[in-house]
Backbone:
């Protein structure tokens, strides 16, 4: 995809601007919670080695900073998963939640946590497999001379309902054990620490690098099947590759924080409106925007009803449902 230098500079500026905006969002999020601190106190607590406020240091380093880093990584992962799925399906309604990927990942992760707690190390992998299976079933059910948004949505609703019933059954059968993961099911970042950051970081870096290598494939899928086939390109193989990485990014996110919907729907759509459909710019822009959105959502979850905390997944649902209904109506037109 070719463009003049002015357009390229504008897109690069937008990416750099969102990175700066992410930094401000992180600073804003660190400041607020059950206890609020000024920006100067935050900087002293982080950068001044002999600063004597031990409570502030403990809140920053043991609670808020790890949690915010998790929000940055998960927001990045989910938005990139949405970008890849929308590239595969060529419509703005594709989303890890709507296509069953999130529900499949959550069910398998839940099974590992409840039934096989000693194998918790494999939860990321099991969530990836669960999401991939659910996605494959939805796409298979929706396929009829191509994929149309309404068929994908209906298939996704059906699969999500089945997976939701499995979760409900586990609530009944393992009521004592499942109480400890209720906040996780609703997409909560509460209690995340450096162990979770270290565990998620390499997967996120791998996923981000993989997405950057998929830029050409995602752009090719935009050209249309007939054009790509005439060039001798294996379209099904490229679709499968993008879906696999979308499932991977969703799986590792769900395994760590549970179900957080609509990040993969809202962010890619808005990012595409702002920066265009060239994935060379869309992927880094959407990744940064996703991080910003989830950091803000998590900050709201901590502060709206303080000292009571609500899961970030609920905040995203309140934001995302009206947007989804608007988008569904727009696509329907």
Residues:
């Amino acid at each position: 995809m070719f463009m003049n230098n002015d357009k390229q500079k504008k897109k690069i500026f937008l990416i750099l601007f969102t990175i700066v905006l992410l930094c401000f969002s992180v600073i804003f999020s660190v400041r607020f919670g059950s206890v609020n601190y000024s920006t100067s106190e935050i900087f002293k607590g982080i950068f001044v080695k002999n600063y004597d406020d031990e409570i502030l240091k403990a809140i920053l380093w043991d609670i808020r900073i790890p949690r915010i880093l998790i929000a940055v990584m998960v927001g990045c992962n989910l938005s990139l998963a949405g970008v890849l799925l929308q590239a595969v399906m060529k419509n703005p309604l594709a989303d890890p939640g709507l296509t069953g990927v999130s529900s499949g990942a959550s069910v398998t992760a839940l099974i590992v946590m409840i039934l096989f707690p000693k194998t918790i190390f494999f939860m990321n992998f099991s969530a990836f497999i669960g999401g991939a299976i659910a996605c494959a079933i939805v796409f298979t059910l929706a396929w009829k001379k191509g994929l149309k948004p309404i068929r994908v949505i209906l298939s996704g609703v059906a699969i999500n309902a089945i997976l939701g019933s499995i979760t409900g059954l586990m609530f009944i059968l393992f009521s004592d054990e499942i109480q400890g993961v209720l906040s996780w099911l609703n997409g909560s970042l509460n209690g995340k620490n450096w162990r979770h950051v270290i565990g998620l970081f390499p997967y996120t870096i791998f996923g981000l690098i993989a997405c950057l290598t998929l830029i050409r494939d995602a752009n090719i899928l935009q050209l249309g099947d007939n054009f790509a086939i005439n060039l001798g390109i294996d379209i099904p193989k490229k679709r499968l590759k993008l879906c696999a990485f979308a499932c991977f990014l969703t799986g590792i996110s769900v395994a760590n924080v549970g179900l957080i919907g609509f990040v993969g729907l809202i962010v890619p759509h808005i990012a595409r409106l702002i920066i265009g459909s060239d994935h060379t710019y869309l992927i880094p822009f959407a990744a940064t925007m996703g991080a910003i959105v989830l950091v803000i959502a998590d900050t709201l979850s901590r502060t709206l009803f303080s000292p009571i905390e609500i899961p970030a997944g609920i905040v995203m649902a309140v934001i995302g449902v009206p947007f989804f209904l608007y988008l569904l109506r727009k696509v329907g037109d």
About this structure: The CA atoms of residues 128 and 251 lie 4 Å apart.
